[in-house]
Design a protein that fits this description.
Blueprint: E1 8-13, H1 14-24, E2 28-29, H2 38-56, E3 62-66, H3 74-78, H4 97-106, E4 110-112, H5 119-132, E5 136-140, E6 154-158, E7 163-165, H6 167-174, H7 181-188, H8 203-213, H9 216-221, H10 229-237, H11 239-249, H12 271-281, H13 284-294, E8 306-307, H14 310-314, E9 337-338, H15 342-355, E10 357-364, E11 374-382, E12 385-390, E13 394-398, E14 404-406, H16 413-424, E15 430-433, H17 436-444, E16 453-455, H18 456-464, H19 472-480, H20 488-491, H21 505-532, H22 536-543, H23 546-556, E17 558-560, H24 562-587, H25 596-606, H26 624-630, H27 638-666, E18 674-675, E19 678-680, E20 690-692, H28 704-709, E21 713-714, E22 719-726, H29 729-737, H30 741-748, H31 753-762, H32 771-785, H33 790-797, H34 801-814, H35 816-832, E23 834-836, E24 842-844, H36 853-885, E25 891-897, E26 900-906, H37 910-922, E27 937-942, H38 945-948
Parallel strand pairs: 1-3, 1-5, 3-4, 5-6, 9-12, 10-15, 15-16
Antiparallel strand pairs: 2-8, 6-7, 10-11, 11-12, 13-14, 17-18, 17-21, 19-20, 22-26, 22-27, 23-24, 25-26
Protein name: DNA polymerase I
EC number: 2.7.7.7
Function: In addition to polymerase activity, this DNA polymerase exhibits 3'-5' and 5'-3' exonuclease activity.
Length: 949
Amino acid sequence: MAFGKGCHLHLIDGSAFIFRAYHALPPLTRKSDGLPVGAVAGFCNMVFRYIEDAKNGDAPTHAAVIFDYSSKTFRSEIFPDYKANRPPPPEDLRPQFPLTREATRAFNIACKEMEGFEADDIIATLARQAREAGGRVTIISSDKDLMQLVGGGVEMLDAMKNLTIGRDEVEAKFGVPPERVVDVQALAGDSVDNVPGAPGIGIKTAAQLIQEYGDVETLLARATEVKQPKRRQTLIDFADQIRLSKRLVTLDDAAPLDFTLDDLEVKDPEPAALMAFLNQMEFRTLTKRVAEKFGLEVPVAAPAAVSETAPERAGAGARATTPAAVPEAPFDTAAYVCIRDGETLAAWLAEARATGILAVDTETTSLDEMQADLVGVSLATAAGRAAYVPLGHSRGGDDLFGGVERAEGQMDPAEALALLKPVLEDPAILKIGQNMKYDWKIFARQGIRVAPIADTMLMSYAMFAGLHGHGMDALSAEYLGHTPIPIKELLGSGKAQITFDKVAIDKAVPYSAEDADITFRLWRRFAPMLHRAGVTTVYETLERPLVPVLAEMEMAGVKVDTAVLARMSNVFAQRMAGLEAEIQEVAGQPFNVGSPKQLGEILFEQLGVEGGSRGKAGAWSTGADVLEDITTLEDTNPQAARLAAKVLDWRQISKLKSTYTDALQTHVNPDTGRVHTSYSIAGANTGRLASTDPNLQNIPVRSDEGRRIREAFVAPAGRRIVSLDYSQIELRILAHVADISALRDAFHHGLDIHAMTASEIFGVPIEGMDPMVRRQAKAINFGVIYGISAFGLARNLRIPRAEAQAFIDRYFERFPGIRAYMDDTIAFAKENGFVRTLFGRKIHTPEINDKGPRAGFAKRAAINAPIQGAAADIIRRAMIRMPAAIAGLDATMLLQVHDELIFEVAEADVEPLIGAARDIMEGAAEPVVKLSVPLVVEAGQGASWAEAH
């Protein structure tokens, strides 16, 4: 039916329905998997009631439910702070948004949204089109922003109150007719949407002004005629802000829609589709009502959705919200299947297509994903329903040609991967893994890009960081009450250890399939727990999307010049020899500098250092912390202090040589000629990434020797290394969270923050400041973030402890807000057992209420975690956004080193890359967090990392 005269269009404000439904009903979860569905249930009931009421009244000929696509619209471009005050949706509401779209389609009602425009703009555009076509419009909403559309055949209906809103009702609310509502809103502003308006002018005053002057432009043109001095000056001073506000509140009735009014013709629900959706949601009562409506039998349904208890909705405390669940089915390794042919594999993959879920795991010959060979793939489609696909097992002997003889009863790898590829890449099938980044890379090397994914390790990390590890064996024992088959039973240990391709297939099946089974069960266990723990957003925006980003970086690798490393190794060896001679001269005798036992005897027995401790074997302890303490004894035992300092220097050079200049040469991949580090997403409780095999994050940056190592990280010919590094990001976050005005002002004005701090606490001018004084302030600035003690500061600065304590005391006197932040954070941790970052990351502090040294460490960790964690969250957000931002450039993100991102870029794209990456990094906190200090990113580029940094 073509839309025209006599037609009646109903436009339903979908967001209003969702939020009313969410707050009207108690929390509900789907019993089968714990998915929150309370808002969906309420939404479905409201839509069903709407359909029934519409048929009994003035029935529409056309109808649509209109949704907001996202929070980013053209208004955000005009005014970045638009709607910045709005809190994020509740954790348990987020996963329900897409389900309400599915519900709308299940009721066979047009479901419309549009990127870059709010639902209100789509409604405004449709209302104008319908009015021009001669039809009538009813907007089902009570949103005041839509009241500007009322009139000329357009009315509103508040469905909750069954109240019609026409011109009279709008004028009663705003004091002006609908066509002047935007003028009143422009003056009064809107605190909910963060529309600034005119300071001090509310709705009533705004209405009086518009009644007198007609509209905003006339009012501003005649502002000097306004009698009240304060009001007159406000209108003059804030004229541009008022005009901006009018642009923000005026709905765009010319949105470029990709559908027409004719597409919105009312259609009856298709009973089968609707019943299937309601049954899937486990809405038994509504399913029964709909079945009765259509004269259908009620299907055999899954258990009804259940109410959550208050504690479950409140979220997890220090532990999981519920005890370990009894598995859906007992573990039975004998029931696992060995898939040896394409027909059987195709049948298993059909199960995954039917359910939309597949747990997957790989078996390989090595933990190095870049060199490992694929041996087999394990799958699970349900709890207890698991299989193993052997692909690369050998008999263990050699064939006639000197190669490895292939074991019988396996699938051809090419055939298996050809069957797996469409499923692993199907956007409609969720692929579940444990440490999915490893498997992602294994499949990527086979030409398969796995997506979408879920990762049980990262689910655990989001919920339980600080409580326990996140390996599969530990999680299985903790949450499934099951101990997996130990890998040692298959591979052995020590010199006799074999690789997985040498494992007999009959032994590989139960071990491998069990891994997929456990992973599937953990996912079923963890998925409903995320929202209860209040970390759904953390997992969905900071953890899961990072997997493919890191995987691509790791696979790209970084080029290393081994000749440079070899030369450095020689230089370091010479430097060590020189230091050994100096050390023995200070000691007054020859000894093995690398022997902690001999060093301890000289320091504590011959040079008389007091307060030492011995290990279990009776030798004196001479760890770095002990030597650092001894270096502070310059006044009382100068010989021991100089000896300790020289040994620390020798140890640093020795570590650089063994860990980097020697070891890095062995890490160069023979196939790529590059070094491929591996990042552990769940390696640190605070969200910081950990780099291993090799560790590229611990290369010292403050010593000349450490900086020289970066000279070996180079770009190929025609390309450059680009480094972008956050400037003092943790101090900036501290200034924000502790609300320190002096630090905030310094960052806003681009001052030297360490010099400013030194000036504040030591009372010295910034101009001509002694570099040593600035260094002391810098040590305090960074030390405070880590809860440093006078003992630790004295060690860092190599000064007496009393002097260090005096520095700290003066620091807190000058910046009392930092002490208040520390005290408040510790109190929160003690009460709740965890702390949170600005982005919702939860870091547990289980030892915070203990006695003794553990409590001290836990308190320092609690103070640091929200700051370091927020910095880690920000750079994660930047990394996740980066691929899209630089997609058009010949550039690759290679490394993340704490607050720094390193890229390899074609020479022609260096400046565009720096501009694009800097924009992403400096805006990474938004829109979730609006920091009170600017984020600043320093960029550099060169032929090597050393030049770029």
